[in-house]
Amino acid sequence: MGKQAHERALADNQAKAIGTMIRVSPRKLNLVAQSIRGKSADAALNELTFSPKRIAGSVKKVLQSAIANAENNHDLDVDDLFVKEASVGKNMVLKRFHARARGRGARIEKPFSQVTIIVEEKREPAREKKAAPKSKSGQKTKSGEAKTASKKQAVKKPAAKQPAAKKAPAKKKSAAKSAKEKA
Question: Does residue 13 sit in helix, strand or coil?
Fold first, then answer.
């Protein structure tokens, strides 16, 4: 006799992980979260691994946790995961003071943040490889390329005959000039 379990708030193809008490301001954390939103899980992990930001390591741990939750708890395929949502929120603030002149004190706030990462499985439809139509030459090409190639050949053939006819008399004249020069 206990409480009934809460219904699942996320869809069946989603998994979530929350990182709390991250020692950085929400504004700075949001810059890192913004860099991974909408990316595939692999691309987001690479982005966080090579990010120069100090807090990227903590966000990477949360993302890895979300991926592990998706795989182990919800039986989702890791290769098809992408970061659907990466939201940042405020957490507690440590209040300290800094001694100033004349016995005064200045307030120093040390903010903490939290990040929530939701990953979703997005299955890509199976791509069927269709055979491209064959052109007249027997090579497989795209339909647009085959038409343009045949037009180019049709244009080249008449143009090739005309200059050849002009070049032949020019060769005869040069041959005649060379014969005069030899004599």
Answer: coil
